[in-house]
Amino acid sequence: MLWPLQLTHLLPRAEFACIETGRVGPPDRVATLASFVTRSSGRLCGSKTPIFVSGPQRVARRPKMSESGTPAFQIIVLGPNGGPREDHVTGLLVRSTSMSWTPGSVVAVDAGTLLAGIIRILKNFLPDSIDGQGNMTAGPFKGLHLPAKSAEANAAYIFREIIGAVLITHPHLDHVSGLAINTPILEAGSGPKPVAALPSVLSAIKNHMFNDIIWPNLSDEDGGAGLLTYQRLVEGGNTRFGTGDARGYVRACNGLLTKCLSVSHGHSKQRFHPESGMHHRVGSTVFSPDQYIFSSRAVSMDQTDGSFYSPARSPQIPPTAPKEPMMASVESSAFFIRDHRTGREIIIFGDLEPDTVSLEPRNKRVWEAAAPKIHAGSLGAIFMECSFSDSIDDSYLYGHLCPRHVAAELKVLAGKVMGLRDSVSLDKKRKQPTSGFGDSSGTPLSPRSKSRSKSRSNPSLDRSEPSSGGIRAVDMPETLVDRIGSKDVAEPNDVGWADADPLPLTGLSVYIIHIKEGLDDGPPPEEQILRELKAHAQESHLGCQFFIPDPNQAIWV
Q1: Position 438 confidence tier, pLDDT thresholds 50, 70, 90
Q2: 3-state secondary structure of 536
Q3: Could you tell me which of 16, 57, 504, 536 has the fewest CB atoms within 10 Å of its CB?
Q4: Is this prediction's pTM over 0.90?
Q5: Is 241 within 8 Å of 250 (Cβ atoms)?
């Protein structure tokens, strides 16, 4: 479900504030040292192309640098797969290159793999890649000072000190199991480590994992051990924070900001109820196709917009129970992560399904937010799942993507980017001075001729490059809205930008994660997935490039 912004005041919140000492500077200078102070109420506050890409057919590429001449992000993919092996499931580390390896300088996104992934990387480079002062000289953690000798002890140090917060996309075990198993090594004296997510995600983690039954309550809520603190994010961003392009973003760690949008990941018979902060079975007295009385209040569902629930003004008792219970969408997340210094961004998706088969299509909102960033040149990379090859039938996706659906989703994004180009181009044309005559030859046109000329014009054919100035929000012509807003995205060649220069997603790198491993003697599934993705991208004239990340190599964006 989309998180109802008008109900956010009903939820308990915690926030962390940053107490800064030292200076923020380039990587070779001492950077900000921050500590998190937990509060019991209030509000949560707060490229382009990689230098190195890896995986099958790995390619070294020159990045399109920022003004400072350096990439903005370093990303380490600890877990690139989606199971069934438990030691390679989803987990990423993200750092701003404007920050040194200092306490709180890294944010983890998902934690299916956490300590195990860090230990594995360190073992691959220790003891050969460390100098006399204890600094890493090679590998993803190059430049990090390691205070201990063993990979295990140094991994514990990285988790305790260097990782400032953990962002969770959704509460499935392959995204949170490392967090549960690893949390006991945190030290209470250093303060609780923030775990930030949408309220529905934290509700599941709190009530079904750190609940003193499945696992000890290690949080600082309900009398827990106080090793973790929950940070409930506002879906779509908290507009009370930030200005300009950073509006709605909140602090993720030193040097990085984040904003979270919800996406759908299959369906189940459990739905999050924001007023109670709990998940309830669909078809119970709380959720059903009709309105029910519940504790002297009713909860109604607006059939025109399944993303919002609100107290009902006129509750009714249904005459009969539904024959079959409704299914509810499983909520996952897409994190926009922004480098505070340069304004450049990446997107990291949790598990998601295609809008074309979803009960509650929500990917379009992510693409609407991403398109202006691609148009402006500030979005450098997307990390998204592709669990299966195209051999799988849609009925067996179970809330995941395969190459044909990844390409279809990126076609929606490409269409929105082209729509912005067309709109800016049309806006520039409107501002050009005219002589008052109807055509460039100087021949006046009659009103009827003007009408015919206007009806024949096709703004989607104009591919002129916009100026380098700022982008204004303008309404897209209806022809463009029809072209890019349709759910019919199955035809690979049904695009209006085949001759565009550059192609709409040129300069965007798409890193594929959450690939389901075959665990057989056949070729690795990522090889087939990558071939299919590249074929779809070529057919659809997207312009982006696809890569499979290698945990032993850092990604620079």
Answers
A1: very low
A2: helix
A3: 57
A4: no
A5: yes
Q: Give dist(CA 251, CA 237) in Å, integer.
A: 11
Residue 359 to residues 300, 318, 328: CA-CA distances in angstroms?
A: 18, 24, 8
Say if residue 464's pLDDT is above 60.
no
Q: Structure tokens of 44?
A: 């949560």
Question: For the packed helices 403-431 and 478-485, what is the interaxial angle rounded to 10 degrees?
Answer: 170
Residue type, 266: G
Instruction: Enumerate domains of the chain plus CATH numbers.
Output: 5-268+329-417+549-556 (3.60.15.10)
Residue positions counted in the chain = 557
The pLDDT, as a whole number, for residue 279 is 64
Q: Is-contact 55 530, C-beta < 8 A?
A: yes
* 544 token code pair: 């982006």
Give the Cα separation of 233 and 198 in Å (integer): 5
Q: Specify the DSSP class assigned to residue 515.
A: B
- Please report, rounded to a whole number, the percentage of residues in the chain having pLDDT higher than 90: 62
CA 348, CA 92: separation in Å to the nearest integer? Answer: 9
Query: Following DSSP, what letter does each residue of 293-320 receive, concatenated?
Result: EETTEEEEE-TT-TT-EEE-SS----SS
At residue 458, the 3 state secondary structure works out as coil
What's residue 433's pLDDT? 62
Tens digit of each residue's pLDDT (9 = 90 or more) over 344-359: 999 999 999 999 999 9
Q: Measured in whole angstroms, how far is the alpha carbon of residue 296 from the centre of its chain?
A: 39
Partners of residue 261 on adjacent β-strands: 334
Helix or strand (DSSP H, E) at 200: helix 199-208
Angle, vertex CA 474, rays to CA 242 and CA 364, nearest 5? 70
**N- to C-terminal Cα separation, the chain:** 31
Q: What is the pLDDT of residue 187?
A: 86
